[in-house]
Amino acid sequence: MSTATYTVVGMTCGHCVSSVREEVGAIKGVTGVDVDLETGRVTVTSDGPVDTALVRDAVDEAGYELKP
Amino acid sequence: MSTATYTVVGMTCGHCVSSVREEVGAIKGVTGVDVDLETGRVTVTSDGPVDTALVRDAVDEAGYELKP
């Protein structure tokens, strides 16, 4: 099992959190997504390591930005 | 046809706008809802006058507050 933490910029409310959770949660192998609105911290749990590019794409898809 | 304008407090993003539009748009007689995120202004177009209490309830239901 892998856990990785990212910072997402631009989330303002619970709807934003849901969007990010949904998109990131749809990545293959991802088993859990924890999003903290206040800090923008997104913790992703997965079966194995997940390519950051996939997380970045999912966050983009949700309408937000992964902090470099 | 009636048009009334309200101010809604607490909307932060496009998802919030959609929620308000959906709930207010579900009020009987309402034919159009225009929401401006920047100002919080919500313009409601309807067949006839709409009870403000119904608009307030709909905004509450969406998770926001109608400015008194």
TrEMBL record, chains A, B:
What superkingdom heads the lineage? Answer: Bacteria
Q: Which residues form the HMA domain?
A: 2-67
Pfam families (UniProt xref): HMA (PF00403)
Q: Which InterPro entries match?
A: Cu-bd, Heavy-metal-associated_CS, HMA_Cu_ion-bd, HMA_dom, HMA_dom_sf
Note the CDD domains from the entry: HMA
Q: What is the lineage of its organism?
A: Bacteria, Bacillati, Actinomycetota, Actinomycetes, Streptosporangiales
Listed name of the protein: Heavy-metal-associated domain-containing protein
Q: Name the UniProt key words of this record, in alphabetical order.
A: Copper, Metal-binding
